[in-house]
Specification:
Chain lengths: 691, 369
């Protein structure tokens, strides 16, 4: 069973720009399935719809069969925007006027994109009225007969939520089934809310759960319930598809609700702030990936930027994302390689008995275009010697401007007699913004699992692989390597094991025997860097999805001591401010009292939830409450338009953390540590924090 | 009380030394026969367990009640037992192991190869991996196996519970798939105990003859999380027994449940049990491949002995040049289990009708309506 790497070839397939999607396609057995709509983009800048289709060809995105709307993208192709390009606009809802949720002019929209959000939860309503005005249930059955303008699932609005709650009363399971959140009969049916604790319930309560009557009257929620882990991909292959659509949907709904509600305000003697064109939004996305460009040029980051820049006046859109929990996963490494043929290598441990695929991304820092072919890469299997064949010429650049560059060249890992590959290595070039002639080179390495119970021969060997980079250019380069996210289908299963990098100089524990974090604690002024290995580093492990200017990035700490949570991922060593966490919120009460108390999947549960997902939710809450205050008081929409969530959150955290006399390490805690929000369940649990 | 000595000597490796009353070929995975067949059954009085106090009380009772020992005039003999159900499970198992054992033996073929022989044929031929053992051995020969173990050791946290339980009990894990219980699957469970009890003395001989030091002896960094047993690493006993049990169960389960895939659930369970020993740090991956071959070969030969199977396959492992680079994955196991058809089997001369009757009883536990 010997596997050998092929030589490099120009990448011919025209479908996807994403190496993960390309890999996904190449490993599927031949299936007669829905072919993606034929589409030849005209030259020029792609519309949002086209950008999504270029990254994720519509026929290829997996999802529950019952949830898929087979005609959606065909209709999108036919609809044209003012530039004559396929347009998402077809998906605007059309509700009867009595069904449109009523919002005041000073309303603030809080978006929650998550999985397993129970829409009926008492903490999100006041009496019989829910504060959730709309929810897109991506996993719910798509109803062929109902007017459905969504690519999958269905949408429920406030009136339907209220009516469903009234109809079923205390039978929460029935309510969740009605919303497509729970189907125990289908073997692959959604069931994240069947467990006591669902991620979405925990996040939703922290973002916008209040005791009855305590919620600010002008905060309203739009929720998006994402599909299950297998649909999104255990390594997040399709995450950006669902999160981009979710975010665009929240914005579109906010604008729809503004347009519809503004029709009746005047007759009711209400008016928005001067010049305002929409509701301000803050969106929590407690998800992310461990590997990506980390400089704002990734697909999702570019789409977010476009969306934020297109918002109407007075309706800013802010995005809040956690740092992630992978600080200690040994999944990030930096290699500094000299010029003129120098090389360096890194061990990559792929676990045996691992039923999930494994991916690594390798990024160079910006280099000149003519140096690209001088950077060599080799991936040697355990026990094999490296081979580094020459590069072919890449195909010509194409005339469409897409957020995502095309795959240029590829090599595959093959076994004689088998037609499908066992691994692949893709190369792409990302033009560096503001530096013409410079690109960052991305390699994506993909390999099959080491244990495959359904096709037992479709595996790769476990053990220590070796990635070698060689630099024949005239200038030294820095390469950063990240192991991509790798989950099991169920949160507690151990079927999907994450690979990691090996470095003899990496130390897991400090001198006292505590788990070693990026900085020593108690904090010193200046902070003491304790992340000292040569190659593998905690610095740089921060959520790749979060790394974009304008995103509020939230880290975690222990409430009783101010100690940073050791798992809370760290920003890069010499990064820009926007690549660092913005602030930190409490993710644990203390070393023994883990987690932050929040809602479970049923109204009777309150459970501790550890992790930076729940720090992000608290920051979103704080920002929403501040926006609500601003909106109530604003006379002119410029006050809203100028609201910079990142600046505000950083300043407020620094204010709350002023009691600390020590300097706060930015890469770990941002500008400072916020206490638990006063309006959340944690109020009164700890004394005013003094660290 | 003979069992005591074993139990004390066993200590941590207790399960392996048997540690249950009777101290017969207890097996690595120990407690099987003792457990279910009820070590407590043997010697159990009508109302309580044996003890010196009870015997003293019975003595007093005898003296107080018997009077003078007058022989009875006539005695009607009790009926002669038909079948073996008059025996406790443990004694039945011991009897049947006794009946099966003479059909199998280990034959050395060379200084580095031994065969498991049944009906005059080598059903499994196992060769010691060539690490130049008798010359000055280079530990680097085993480096690829140790490299694999390093990866496996990352899984210790995940597998801790299984590793601990499987020190003494692998049957419970098969029980998950096959609803094993001492009432309506009694014969099945006893059959598994018999095969496991048969396997241990055979595997111990092979281990001795093809002695390979344990991983912890080769590299101190292995740091196993359970006590390294005294016997040789190669072949792996857990793998042999697990694959033997899987083979028997698959034959029984197939009576009622149509097997759908090539790598059915009992084999998956056996694979996981084997891998757990590598994860724990007491076996090289290749030990499990050799064990799987022995276990499958032994069980199929047993099925032939009881009349269930008519064809047999001869298998071999260990002689290939690449054996030191092999990992114990389902694909490799499947490859290792391939063999060649055996013909010209000698007829059975030792008795086996009690075994056949007991197999029939086991099969009946899987009957459909």
């Amino acid at each position: 069973m010997t596997l050998t790497w092929s030589g490099w070839t120009a990448y011919e397939a025209s479908e996807s720009r994403s190496p993960y999607v390309a890999w996904h396609e190449s490993t599927k057995p031949d299936q007669a399935g829905t072919k993606p709509p034929q589409w030849d983009p005209a030259p020029g800048k792609l519309s949002a719809a086209e950008a999504i289709l270029a990254e994720f060809p519509a026929g290829n995105v997996p999802m529950r069969d019952s949830a898929r709307n087979p005609d959606f993208w065909q209709q999108v192709m036919k609809a044209k925007d003012s530039d004559g390009r396929p347009d998402l606009g077809i998906w605007s809802p059309s509700l009867a006027s009595q069904d449109i949720p009523k919002l005041p002019p000073d309303a603030v929209i809080v978006g929650v994109i998550d999985r397993g959000i129970p829409l009926h939860h008492a903490r999100l309503r006041y009496g019989d009225e829910t504060r959730i005005v709309a929810a897109w249930q991506m996993d719910a059955p798509w109803e062929a007969n109902a007017p459905s303008n969504l690519p999958m699932g269905r949408e429920v609005f406030q009136k339907e939520i209220n009516e469903t709650i009234a109809a079923h009363g205390a039978d929460e399971d029935a309510i969740m089934q009605a919303f497509g959140l729970l189907d125990m009969r289908d073997k692959n049916g959604p069931r994240s809310v069947a467990r006591r604790q669902s991620h979405g319930a925990a996040v939703m309560d922290l973002v916008s759960g209040y005791a009855p009557g305590a919620a600010p009257e002008n905060i309203f929620v739009i929720a998006v319930n994402l599909p299950d882990r297998e649909t999104i991909g255990l390594s997040g292959t399709f995450l950006d598809y669902f999160t981009t659509l979710a975010l665009y949907r929240i914005a579109a709904l906010a604008d729809y609700l503004w347009a519809e509600n503004s029709k009746r305000w005047q007759s009711e003697g209400l008016s928005p702030a001067e010049g305002q064109g929409g509701f301000p939004c803050v969106v929590n996305l407690s998800f992310g990936k461990n590997a990506g460009p980390r400089n704002g040029t990734g697909f999702f980051q570019t789409m977010v930027k476009e969306l934020r820049e297109s918002r109407p006046f007075g309706a800013p859109l802010s995005l809040v994302i956690p740092t992630g929990n992978d600080n200690l996963a040994q999944g990030h490494a930096v290699l500094d390689i000299g010029a003129d043929g120098a090389s360096d290598d890194l061990g990559w441990m792929v676990s045996p008995e691992d039923q999930s695929q494994n991916f690594v991304e390798i990024w160079t820092d910006p280099i000149e275009e003519d140096a690209v072919d001088k950077i060599g890469i080799d991936v040697a299997l355990p026990g094999q010697s490296p081979t580094a064949p020459a590069y072919p010429t890449e195909p010509q650049a194409e005339p469409v401007a897409s957020p995502s560059p095309k795959i240029g060249i590829v090599r595959t890992l093959n076994m004689t007699g088998e037609d499908r590959p066992f691994g692949a290595l893709y190369r792409r070039q990302f033009p560096e913004p503001d530096a013409p002639g410079f690109v960052r080179v991305q390699f994506v390495l993909a390999v099959l699992p080491t244990l495959n119970l359904s096709e037992i021969n479709r595996t790769v060997p476990s053990g220590e692989w070796r990635i070698t980079l060689t630099n024949k250019s005239a200038k030294p380069i820095t390469a950063s390597l990240s192991v991509q996210t790798d989950q099991s289908p169920l949160p507690t299963a151990a079927q999907g094991l994450r690979s990691y990098f090996t470095d003899p100089s990496y130390s897991r524990f400090d001198q006292q025997g505590r788990v070693r974090d990026s900085y020593a604690f108690p904090l010193t002024d200046p902070p003491t860097d304790s992340d000292l290995a040569h190659k593998v580093s905690r610095h740089g492990s921060l959520n790749a999805t979060a790394s974009a200017p304008g995103t509020v990035i939230v880290a975690g700490h222990l409430a009783n001591s101010g100690r940073p949570a050791d798992y809370s991922a760290t920003g890069p060593k010499n990064g820009a401010d926007w690549q660092m966490p913005t602030l930190s919120c409490p993710t644990e009460a203390g070393t023994v009292h883990i987690g932050t108390i929040t809602a479970g999947s049923r109204e009777g549960y309150a459970l501790p939830a550890p992790g930076t997902s729940f720090a992000s939710a608290q920051a979103t809450r704080a920002i929403a409450e501040e926006l609500a205050r601003l909106a109530r008081a604003a006379q002119n929409a410029s006050e809203l338009d100028e609201f910079d969530a990142v600046a505000w959150a950083a300043t407020d955290a620094a204010r709350q953390d002023e009691a600390s006399a020590t300097a706060v390490p930015k890469a770990k805690l941002g500008s400072g540590r916020m206490a638990w929000p006063e309006t959340s369940r944690q109020a009164g649990r700890t004394a005013e924090q003094v660290f | 009380m003979r069992g005591d000595g074993f139990a004390q000597a066993g200590g941590h490796a207790g399960g392996h030394a048997g540690g249950h009353a009777g101290g017969h070929a207890g097996g690595h995975a120990g407690g099987h026969a003792g457990g279910h067949a009820g070590g407590h059954e043997a010697g159990q009085h009508a109302g309580s367990g044996p003890s010196p106090l009870l015997s003293a009380a019975l003595l007093a009772n005898q003296e107080g009640t018997r009077g003078s020992w007058d022989m009875a005039e006539t005695v009607n003999l009790p009926k002669k037992p038909v079948g073996m159900n008059y025996l406790t499970g443990l004694r039945r198992i011991q009897t049947l192991i006794g009946q099966a054992a003479p059909h199998f033996h280990i034959r050395p073929e060379s200084s580095s190869t031994v065969s498991l022989v049944y009906a005059g044929k080598a059903v499994a031929e196992i060769t010691q991996p060539d690490i130049g053992y008798n010359a000055k051995a280079s530990a680097n020969e085993l480096a690829p196996q140790l490299a694999l173990m390093r990866g496996y050791s990352d899984l210790r946290v995940d597998r801790m519970a299984e590793i601990q339980v499987q020190l003494a009990d692998i049957t419970s894990f098969f029980g998950q798939a096959a609803r094993l219980n001492p009432r309506d699957r009694k014969a099945t469970m006893e059959m598994l105990s018999i095969v496991q009890g048969l396997c241990v003395p055979l595997e111990m001989q092979i281990k001795h003859m093809l002695f390979l030091p344990r991983p912890g002896e080769i590299d101190p960094n292995v740091l196993p999380i359970i006590q390294t047993p005294d016997h040789s690493a190669y072949p792996a006993g857990h793998a042999a027994e697990a694959f033997a049990l899987a083979t028997i169960l698959e034959a029984l389960m197939a009576k009622r449940i149509e097997p759908k895939e090539d790598w059915p659930l009992p084999s998956r369970i056996a694979h996981r049990i084997s891998v757990n020993r590598v994860i724990a740090g007491v076996h090289f991956p290749m030990d499990c491949l050799a064990g799987a071959v022995i276990g499958r070969a032994l069980a199929e030969a047993f099925l032939h002995l009881v009349g269930e199977q008519t064809d047999l396959v001869g298998r071999s492992f260990g002689a290939g040049a690449d054996v030191l680079s092999l990992d114990t994955t389902p694909a490799e196991i499947t490859r290792a289990l391939q063999g060649n058809a055996l013909t010209g089997l000698s007829p059975n001369t030792a008795p086996s009708d009690l075994l056949k009757a007991h197999w029939k009883a086991a099969v009946e536990e899987w009957a459909s309506k």
